[in-house]
Amino acid sequence: MLSVVVPLYNEEGNVAPLFERIDNILRRLPGAPHYEIVIVNDGSTDRTAEHVRDEMRRRSGVVLVNLSRNFGHQLAATAGIDTAEGEAVILMDGDLQDPPELIEEFVAKWREGYDVVYAVRRSRKGESVFKVLTASIFYRMVRRMTKVDIPVDAGDFRLMSRRVVDALRRSPERHRFLRGMVSWVGYRQIGVPYDRDERHSGASKYPITKMLHFAIDGITSFSDAPLRMASYLGFCSSAIAFVYGLYVIVSKLLNVNPLGYTPGWASTIVAVLFLGGVQLIGIGILGEYLGRIYDEVKGRPIYLVSEIERS
Ligand code: UDP
Ligand code: MG
User: How many whole angstroms separate alpha carbon 72 and alpha carbon 70?
Assistant: First the structure.
């Protein structure tokens, strides 16, 4: 059995075409495998759940997982992956930016023996220059900063085998960067290129602030490079301060003033501003990690299900 997991947050306009396209492609698959569609309703405030129930009245094999509130895309996806029972689990967005037709290739590769088949974005339609550019920089930054081999330009649209899903289920971290976690799992992984479509209906649920949080989560959960950068910054500024200190002491002792400024003022301001900046950056980076440790030790459940409906 295959499971198709789709997190939905206010996607009422996309439900019907989503089901239609998933059904179309899965019915055509060689061997006609059994499949379930696991929809996670991530606290939608529109008619998303009603639309899914309409589909459920017409067909079987749909699981609707209602979360107790909006938990965000990564946790909603996690809830779906935890609920899915298939031998392979396919995760995709519900706005039809990820064409369901690619599932055919996913399944073919999985049958060849791959554990993870991820979709690599060859092009992105209907997204702002800003989003495409920042995403592209982000993927390359993450890749350079982490020891895990996270593929560039791949989102969460992917197929995972049962053992990969089980590995994810054993990873209870709450600031989840799923695509990184899947890469970390290992086994045999392969990418297939695709062209990312425009959103079918509605607007993106990822405003800049969420994108930024997601990016920071991605980096901090897979890399301690920022902490090291803070130390380097500290070392550099200490070295500069040391050289400058020598200069100040020597010129004081010799009673000379080769740079010719009013003694005291400029140097004090520059040193205070520079060191203040360096310290704040250092504290900020520490704080990012500290906040995450705090979230982890509280040990709260990472999402809460209000009810699961099946057809
Ligand atoms: N999503 C979700 N919870 C959220 C935000 C988004 O379940 O808090 C879902 C959304 O409904 C969609 C997928 O995650 O199915 C990807 O979101 P979106 O298309 O807004 O992201 P983008 O493609 O703009 O990066
Ligand atoms: Mg989208």
Answer: 6
List phi, psi (to 5°) of 30: -60, 135
Q: What is the DSSP letter of 13?
A: G
CB 33 within 8 A of CB 51: no
Residue 265 has pLDDT above 70, yes or no: no
Which tokens belong to 216? 């920071």
- Which of 6, 95, 196, 302, when mutated, tests ligand 1's pocket best, judged by the most ligand atoms within 8 Å of its CB? 95
Give the whole-angstrom CA distance, residue 11 versus residue 205.
10
Gap from CA of 152 to ligand 2 centroid (Å): 18
Cα 280 to ligand 1 centroid, rounded to whole Å: 33
Q: What was the pLDDT predicted at 144?
A: 84
- Residue 138 belongs to what H/E stretch? helix 129-145
Residue 259 tokens read as 């740079």
Q: Which two tokens stand for residue 109?
A: 């590769």
CATH class of 2-223+301-310: alpha beta
pLDDT in tens, 31-50: 878 999 999 999 999 999 99
